[in-house]
Amino acid sequence: MADKIATTSWTYADKESWIKPLPKSQSPINIVTREAEPMIGDGRIVLNYGHQVTSVTDSDNHLEGTLKGLASINGRPFFLSQFHFHAGAEHTIDGVFYPLELHLVHESQVGMLAVIAVIFEFGEENETLNELLDFVNHSNEDNHINILNLIPETLDYYHYLGSLTTPPLTENVEWYVLIEKMTLSEDQWQRITSFHDHNFRDPQDLNNRKVLKKIF
Description:
Elements (H helix, E strand, L loop, with lengths): L29 E2 L5 E2 L6 E5 L5 E4 L4 E4 L2 E5 L2 E11 L5 E2 L6 E8 L5 E10 L4 H8 L22 E7 L7 E8 L3 E3 L1 H8 L18 E3 L2
């Protein structure tokens, strides 16, 4: 995740040397589905995003975009700060590695971070992904890009406490990894990796953290 950029420069080429705190609650992780505990409580996620993207920028390490949006997570409001992509995906599911992961980065009024992660697998082309790629570095132009078309209709998820996945690797980040996957085509993957490839962090030790599973 790249929402909080460190004051020093970093690249994925030297990710093994990233300075990090004691590795207690780092992200991403490998989610072992049979070990995920049912989540108690409502846990509902409601997304209220605008249907127009403000910008999509080819940053140093990611394709990153902005738009106006608000998420209600378990009854708490979080403002959408930005979204960005990792190719390949950062979270693995039962050890399976996927080609792409979208992070929707949110922040509460008091500065708590919550990230909704969408994992993509190969399959049908996603037209909205094409629209986003066409919009790279064309900020402030009129568009009708609906980011909700990159998010599953069913918002079942795995939930755990982790960290940013890029420096400064700050912990106490709420993660919501959606269970239902979206699809992209091989051509779309080739196109997105022409901007950035292998911009992902490897799974980190769980260190006795619980992973919860919420099915609505």
